[in-house]
Design a protein that fits this description.
The chain has 6 helices and no strands. By secondary structure, the protein is an all-alpha fold. The N and C termini lie far apart (57 Å).
Length: 174
């Protein structure tokens, strides 16, 4: 019972932080609210028994990635111009449509039984057997470095390109 109450409290904090993140005009304030969302998600992972993923959520996302984001924001000197928001009515209509699509997907998930994407053999029993065989870290590491090594490297290259691009943009102004 206490776990369920804490889950809903942290879920509300994550939702509220995410909403505050997208409604802020200052990029630094948005980044700070994103850190709050990351910490709430880490607490949810911990409540669900995924301690390793909760710690990685804090170390990697709330730590390293957010330092990178803040570094790029400060390097580009965003937030000092007081120009009006350039998004017009078209962007607001597209955002509302995207929100309606997300609500429809959530309604579909909670409305009835969803077919399991990995078949009927997937689930808690398969996860427990895999954990007994490979350990908690092995459950994440084996597929990450065997099946998903190309997306992992592509993500690393994308982050590197973003940092180099930010430095190049900032260097032109100096």
């Amino acid at each position: 019972m206490v776990t369920q109450v804490l889950f809903f409290i942290f879920a509300a904090c994550a939702g509220g932080s995410a909403l505050a993140m997208i409604t802020r005009k200052s990029p630094v304030a948005s980044a700070m609210w994103l850190i709050g969302t990351f910490f709430s998600l880490a607490a949810i992972y911990t409540l669900l028994g995924a301690f390793f993923i909760g710690i990685i959520q804090i170390l990697v996302y709330a730590g390293a990635i957010m330092v990178l984001f803040l570094f790029v924001i400060m390097l580009l000197n965003l937030g000092n111009d007081l120009e009006a928001d350039i998004r017009g009515t078209g962007w607001k209509v597209m955002a509302g449509g995207g929100g309606l699509v997300m609500l429809a997907l959530l309604a579909r998930v909670f409305a009835g039984d969803m077919p399991m994407p990995l078949g009927n053999e997937a689930g808690a029993a398969a996860l427990a057997a895999n954990q007994a065989q490979n350990g908690t870290v092995g459950i994440i590491a084996m597929p990450l470095y065997q099946e998903f090594v190309v997306p992992l490297q592509a993500t690393a290259i994308l982050l590197l390109i973003a940092v180099v691009g930010a430095v190049m943009l900032a260097k032109r102004k100096v």
